[in-house]
Amino acid sequence: MPEFHTAVATPDAVTMAQGDATALFPWFSFTKTVIATLAMLLRRDGALDLDRPLDGLNGQPYTMRQLLMHQSGLRDYAGLSEYHADVARGRPPWDRATFLAKSQAHSPLFAPGQGWAYSNIGYMIAREQVEQAAQMPFAALFQARIAAPLGLERSKFAANPADFSALHWPAVRSYHPDWVAHGTLLGTAPEAAKLMQALVQGQILPLADLDEMKKAHVLGGPLHGRPWQTCGYGTGLMTGSVARPCGGETPAFGHSGLGTVCANAVYHFPETGRSVAVFTSGTSEAPAEFEAARFGCAPA
Q1: Residue range 99-123: average pLDDT?
Q2: pLDDT given for residue 278 in this prediction
């Protein structure tokens, strides 16, 4: 049975529904939501243009918005057997040039804006653009613009392997965070839920900017073995509708994450006004997503 740690945030409070409120977990791909949020903040500052063509690795210019929406045409490395083998053997992470070469970043899947393909490589480049626009490292930017204003005392960017030494599951402590090409934040379940709730309450960005982030490229209908009934991808947000435990479906947006031996789901449920963060052991996002739907739809 998976082990669950779940926090529920409402406009009034953050409560722990199950598990350990002090345990630390890697946020993995929920980091994408934060990268996109910081990009929106920098655009508001006038430091970043989401629609300016960038010099594409594949010879075709793509925009920051296309990177954030997985519409750049860049390939990914997550399905490569060599990647999984090197991680399992405890080998040092690939450097940037190797990530690009192994994922065939110079050979596009499609012309920018003409398709959709999930790409950690795209988000690696997006994070670089964010750092360049802010003129500071991502760790410092996250602390200054999100963690400190929201009072997230235990959340931070994993800058080196030592940052993983206090993670809840021992098997994750030996994982090098640089195996995630775009990097990963870490923190507690309550702080992840608090961040998501702050985003939807306009405490980080104006709600008009959040509405822009939610505008999605529609990907399709139900996903086998997962709660999604409709799904799409916006700017750093997975969005659509999920099955209610009691029947029917309900809107949701946020992000799931998956890494070695653990997964997470951090979502907001507009019908109830709740944001839910679930961290679980295992090798699939599905259990965390089902738990998020359960607590997002039912009274906390």
Answers
A1: 95
A2: 98
User: What's the DSSP call for residue 211?
Assistant: H
**CA distances to 26, 33, 229, 239, 278 from 218, in Å:** 28, 18, 12, 9, 25
Going through 21-65 in order, the beta strands assigned E by DSSP cover: 25-26
Place of tokens 């012309």: 111
User: Total domain count for the chain?
Assistant: 1
Between CA 39 and CA 54 the distance in angstroms is 15
pLDDT tens digit sequence for 135-167:
999 999 999 999 999 999 999 999 999 999 999
Q: What is the largest CA-CA distance in the chain?
A: 51
The reported pTM is 0.98
CATH of the domain at 230: 3.40.710.10
pLDDT number for residue 58:
73
Q: What is the 3-state secondary structure (H, E, C) of 134-187?
A: HCCCHHHHHHHHHHHHHCCCCCEECCCHHHHCCECCHHHHCCCHHHCCCCCEEE
What was the pLDDT predicted at 243?
95
Burial of 3 (0-12, 13-18, 19+ CB in 10 A): middle
Note down the domain range covering 175: 4-297
Tokens of 102: 């192994």
